[in-house]
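Look over what follows to help learners.
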Amino acid sequence: MTQREQWGSRLGFILAAVGSAIGLGNIWRFPYMAYENGGGAFLIPYLFAMLTAGIPFMILEFTLGHRFRGSAPKALASIGRRWEWLGWIQVMVATTIAVYYVAVVGWTISYTGFALSGAWGEDPKAFFFGEFLGLTSGALELGSLRPTILGAVALAWAVTWLACVSGVRAGIERAGKVLMPVLFLLVLVFTLRVVWLDGAAQGVNWLFTPDFSRLTDYRVWVAAYGQIFFTLSVGFAIMIAYSSYLPARSDINNNAFMTVFINCGFSMLAGVMIFSVLGYMAARQGVPLSEVAGGGVGLAFVTIPTAINLMPMPVFFGTLFFLSLTMAGMSSHISIVEACISAFMDKFGWSRKTTATSLCLAGFVISSVFCLGGGLYVLDIVDHFANNLGILGVALAEIFLLSWLCRLEVVREHANSVSEFAVGAWWTICLRYLSVGILALLVVLNLYGDLTAPYGGYGSTELLAYGWTVIAACVLLGLALRATSGRPGFAVKHDASLRGES
């Protein structure tokens, strides 16, 4: 058996893990979530969720990967052969996210070029939905292929392939050491400039002015936990794969704390950046900030370009902003694809080159669906189901398995044995009760919402075709891969101590 690859340095691992956690959602989701849920008061449940769910879950996944030296399917199969299916469903959810997330990365690549010439013109909304996306009338009308988007998506897949095929140390770690410092520098430069614009202070005040009355609303707390689970890349195979490349002596607890703190700190910096821009935009247009604030793709590709048109040096601001989005998106996409590559290499013994090339080519072919005129509709539906049912569902199953059907104390002992400082019983309590309870509530609420009211006003046929079918496919393919024979020795050393057996 060939020796498993390892990170070249602790810094390389931290940057790669942070690169996975920091993605497009940190820039366009967190600021709006905070704004909608009490402003500065939202930071209280957000930080509480970070300490009681984010850090414990990160330690759990770092420990699983480090202890069992394998991807999610191998790690879970090492606990018990019957649990391998859960790891494969996590990989299938990750695969689903990889093929549509890259489309959004392709948009950011295209817009980086558009920023140099101001191609979106005086009406960024019409440009984005019309000239750029060629948006059709609905999800069932896919329309024609958009060559500009297809080319950008091909470039994104090529960069991901190059990073993954080059290996952990020479490819993924090196990419993290470039992408993360550049991302932080770009965002910092952008933020330091926009906070001095007229109206920027008003925007930041809007974001962080606390509405403490919202703290009695359970939905704010649910939103805070949901944001933590979404933003940290936990629960769908990535962090288990990344930590499996750690050397034997690795400070798991400290690494987890640093990864989570850096991710959440970046989210707050992004919040200052975005709301400084929105405050300036509101001041220039003479409208309340509530009329320009928003989240998601509309914020990134319509609202911000509109604000950039009003700024001094629009080419500078536009290029800086969309280059930042590209850096964040690429680092996350590389990690998602690597989680899938690691699983197939473990199971079937394929070479890294064969696995990376096959998965990236197949991923590119599937991603072409999102380069069609109706691609935005399909992406919206798939993203909703993959996040609200896929990620949260498998995260709940993983924590429930480890917390209630296994001896979580054994996991904690392993993490403490290789770390500079130990975590106590609070860690077990947070995972066993708080994380399981909140995740169960999130899954039930999301499932109830999707069964009682059609998401986004889409028709039942569209939701069935692109939403429920994708979730069912993830489950069925996960079960099929569990039943498939792999190479001899895959996860044969079951960890009886974790199951409470002597």
